Amino acid sequence: MEIRINMVKVEPNAYKVMDALDKFVIGSEIPPLHRELIKIRASQINGCAYCVNYHTHDALKLGETQQRLNLIAVWREAGNIFTDEELLLFQMTEQVTLIHRRGLSKKVYDNAIATFGELKTAQIIMAIVTINAWNRIGVSLNMHPQLDQQPLTGE
Which of 25, 82, 91, 130 could pair covalently with 21 via S-S, beta carbons 3.0-4.6 A apart? Predict the structure, then answer.
């Protein structure tokens, strides 16, 4: 595995900006477990093993089950495992993460506004944008989880 730069050491001001985005998301109306589900699904799509590992650990600490974590990647086929709100979060996460395909569809956007309201929908979009930025840092810098080791950074 190629060792690449440590963003915190090389560009601490950039890391502080990312940390500020995290603090915004933490202070939002999005429940902690929903935040982790967003982070896990985006990280799966982006192929960021470091973030998948980190956020599945955090979800387990919040009481999430291993079975539900195992099924996030195949949420469409999982039956009644996830709530309607969680399914909507997965739809939003996929469409914003894969923005180049078609963007956030009118149907999903309208459903989000009806379900969450404008403020929480805006916060969910920011949560998705933030984890996508972290994923791009993690993948670009070749960050990988180590067996039985919790991640060290704060994303």
Answer: 130
| DSSP state letter for 29 | S
- Contacting residues for 143 by C-beta, under 8 A, at least 6 apart: 48, 50, 137
Domain at 90, CATH number: 1.20.1290.10
Q: Report the C-alpha gap between 14 and 11 in whole angstroms.
A: 6
Q: Measure the N-to-C terminal CA separation of the chain; round to a whole number of Å.
A: 22
pLDDT at site 41: 98
How many separate domains does the chain show? Answer: 1
Q: Domain range holding 121?
A: 12-140
Distance in angstroms (rounded) separating the CA atoms of residues 132 and 22? 12
**Both structure tokens of 144:** 């990988």
Are 30 and 126 in contact by the 8 Å Cβ rule? The answer is no
To the nearest whole percent, how much of the chain has pLDDT over 90?
89
- Which has more pLDDT, 7 or 155? 7
Return the structure tokens found at 107: 């149907």
For 81-134, how does the pLDDT look when each residue is reduced to its tens digit (9 = 90+)?
A: 999 999 999 999 999 999 999 999 999 999 999 999 999 999 999 999 999 999
The answer as to whether 56 is a domain residue is yes
Is 1 within the bounds of a domain?
Answer: no
Whole-angstrom distance, CA of residue 143 vs CA of residue 38: 20
